[in-house]
Amino acid sequence: MTCQELRACLGAHLDGELDLERSLAADEHLAFCMACQWAYAKERELRALLRTRLPREPAPAALRERIRSALRRADRREREGVLRRSLPWAVPVAALLLLAVGIGLWERSAPPPVVRELVAKHLMYSRLEAPAEIASASQEAVAGWFKRRVRFDVAVPDFSPSGIRLVGGRLSDLSDRQVAYLLYEKGRNLVSLFALPSRGFALPGRGWVRAGDGRFSVTEVKGVEVVIWTQGELAYALVSSLDREALLECAETVWRLVVSRKPPGA
Amino acid sequence: MREFEDQALVHLDRVFHLALRLTRNRTEAEDLVQETYLRAFRHFDQFDPGTNCRAWLFAILRNAFLNQVKRQGREVPGLDERELERAEAELADVNGTIESPEEELLKRVVDADLVAALDQLPLIFREVVVLADVEECSYKEIARICGLPMGTVMSRLSRGRRLLRRGLEILTRERRRLGTAR
Questions:
Q1: Would B76 be classed as within a structural domain?
Q2: Are residues B54 and B95 in the same domain?
């Protein structure tokens, strides 16, 4: 190895980055060449200077805290983002379920089975990404979709004056009965409207209230309000985590719509 | 989250120091470090647990820094040919003085001058010198962090060190001149 060759790889030699063969050759040269020894020593001195004398201030404690809280925020956003993308109503529902644990502790009597079933269905659809089989904001389109799928006439009410918009519909079942299921939402809150033949359908025995011309059974389970009633041959149920008044308002809207659709004298 | 903190946040001091040397500005460095950690957190699934987390963070930091520089329309270091030429010209000068009789000069270097001399280096040299000599990264790691071939890492490193030495000598001589004049 010549002086020139050695100088070219002096740094790498010091850094231990030469392969064994070249490293040995470099050592061999260094053993006999005073000028290169001197250059080597100077190179090593600079390295030592940087490693030992360069002031290194640690990251400020405030920065560490800032990063920690930024990470926590990002973590939260990410989780919520994932949930929101896949389960549009999951966050409020999860919050309600948490709340429900607390409320549940105070609850004395178990709700009627049909109410429990309705709430379970509602919560299940809340967790689905796209629960509607027909996704449409058009009342006509959704009503038309049900025409050949269920044996009864499905009224699709308009709740938009209350800020509740139609999302779509799907078939569902309740106690082994086929049910027409309409989905609405207000913000992130899902509003479920179930319609099914009332024959043999066991209505809750309590919680009946009057609103407008109708009579409705109102129950609250785990923060979810359930309004049930019958009109003619059909039973209806509205389920949502919206407040009771808002839901009763919707119930009245359905009531009026169903009344208006009935042929006179029927 | 806990795993990320355990693996990545322990390197905060090192990451901060590199940010400080790249940006040469405290506020900028702090923001850059925060951005680095957020990016790292978002892409933590891409981190290979068997590899060096510090080097991985350095690479993210360097990338974030270059993006920032580009965004702000400042010079893009490493692509500026004139900067290289200027450095080369200075090197020719260095070669002339390196064998000067003042071989004891480095012994009198003041810590503050060490920082100043390092910060004066053009970025393309500064980053490799800091990574190698301060952070003690291997050439392979540096090549990965900076996206450079090994040969380029080696040549930039040796040029950078020569430039640094030259800078240190000038600063130390200057300090001595001022000291004796007083």
A1: no
A2: no
Number of structural domains in chain A: 2
The yes-or-no verdict on residue B79 having pLDDT over 60 is no
pLDDT-flagged residues of chain A (< 50): 105-108, 266
Q: B101 pLDDT band (50/70/90 cuts)?
A: very low
Determine whether the interchain pair B138/A17 forms a contact, defined as Cβ–Cβ distance below 8 Å.
Answer: yes
Query: pLDDT at residue B72 above 90?
Result: no
Percent of chain B with pLDDT over 70: 80
pLDDT at B126: 93
Please answer yes or no on whether B38 and A43 come within 8 Å at the CB atom: no
A13: burial class by Cβ within 10 Å (0-12, 13-18, 19+)? buried
pLDDT at B70: 78
Does A158 contact chain B (CB < 8 Å)?
Answer: no
Q: What is the CATH number of the domain that holds A184?
A: 3.30.200.100
In A, minimum Cα distance to B168 occurs at A46
B37 and A50 in contact by Cβ < 8 A? no
Tell me the residue range of the domain where A15 lies: 3-53
- Tokens 């809750």 correspond to A204
Is the domain of B37 the same as that of B113?
A: no
Cβ atoms of residues A251 and A216 within 8 Å: yes
DSSP secondary structure, A144-197, as one string: HHHHTTSSSPPP----GGGT-EEEEEEEEEETTEEEEEEEEEETTEEEEEEEEE
Tell me the two tokens of residue B25.
């500005």
Are B42 and A67 an interchain contact pair (Cβ–Cβ within 8 Å)?
A: no
* Contacts with A51 from chain B: Cβ below 8 Å: 133-134, 136
Let me know whether B63 and B93 are in one domain. Answer: no
